[in-house]
Amino acid sequence: MPIIDLHNHTTFSYDGKNTPEAIIQNAIAHNVDVIGITDHQFTIRQDLEYYISYLKYCKKKYSGQIQVLLGLEIGTRPAPSDLLASSCAQLDYVLFECLDDSQDRAMDLFEFLEWSRMFQCRKGLAHTDIFALGEKYGLDMIKTMRKYNLFWELNTSGNYTYYYDFLTSQKKREAIQRSGLQMSIGSDTHSIDEYRFKQLKRANELLSELKIPLP
Questions:
Q1: Best label site of 40, 43, 73, 165, fewest CB within 10 Å?
Q2: Against a cut of 0.70, is the pTM above it?
Q3: Residues linked to residue 97 through DSSP beta bridges, in sequence order
Q4: Distance of CA 136 to the CA centre of its chain
Q5: pLDDT band at 202 (very low <50, low <70, confident <90, very high)
């Protein structure tokens, strides 16, 4: 069973404490098979080209030890006005965050879905309670996400209640299992001193047991 961790922040993010190489080396030390770097778009802004070049360098440097994926976390409260979807073409994937913002600061879901079509790389929803979001908009979010080619992240940082809900709700696990919706797993690490590997490993084991496809 491969262990994946597709949500990590580095010094490219305002809240990241470690360099991309330190994050990658920490993953190698924990026998992680696939590590994704997903710094904040609103921090990187005009440095996106440099960011991508740096991560490509890391991907090549560590290719014999771990698979490194190039990602980006994109805020939706509101949608960034300076981000062109074409700028993300060289990325392996993007994560959209905060669509389920409790204070209604996020962009409208229907607007978001059409906007997301412009991104040609793989794309997913980070730390989002899709069941609550579906109730808010009166949509079957599982079917909607499959239609728009979006995967769903199981965020193991401990900061989001939907993670614990998924672990304890057989009904929700079975709904995802039946649907064929792809799921990713992310530690949402901002500092390797707080790396929650035990939770990350358990989440990988759970999705493997449920035979839920990875993106």
A1: 165
A2: yes
A3: 75, 126
A4: 22
A5: very high
